[in-house]
Amino acid sequence: MRNTEKEREESKATERLREWIKPGDTLYTVLRHRSRSGMSRSISVLGLQQINNLPQDKIQIWSYDGNVALATGRKFDRDREGVKVQGCGMDMGFHLVYTLSRILFPKGFGCVGEGCPSNDHVNGDRDYTPHATVTERTGADGTLCTCHKEHWHRDGGYAVRQRWI
Hints:
Layout: H1 5-20, E1 26-34, E2 40-50, E3 59-63, H2 65-72, E4 76-77, E5 82-86, H3 92-104, E6 109-110, H4 119-122, E7 132-138, E8 143-149, E9 152-153, E10 161-164
Parallel strand pairs: 1-10
Antiparallel strand pairs: 1-2, 2-3, 2-5, 4-5, 6-9, 7-8
Helix pairs in contact: 1-2
């Protein structure tokens, strides 16, 4: 089965976002516009990144709007520079970031340790052991063993935090 041009663009946008956004990151949303009826909004999705070679108070602000619109199958509002989101009655910024996070991490994500954003921790999982694959020497002969410290969260929607600006 051949991919359509739209499917290829969505796939490319998703791959780019997976490179930029990691579990435990925070995405910031900005309300750019709300329709008179309240049924439609334009929301920007931003990421902050520390620049390694600059002083600690210097950060880079990234706008993910175009890629988020493609990855989630939504329209990009060029006039207001945001992702168009339809609906009301809930936090639409959270909804947009949760939907994006489910697309980026469809099989879930490994616990990131202390401060992990997963709702599993709110619902009783008090174990913050980070998920990791560790290669270590075992035995007298010094053989290598790959050990998996499993701590997997199944709902990828909670891999990323959302905050309003």
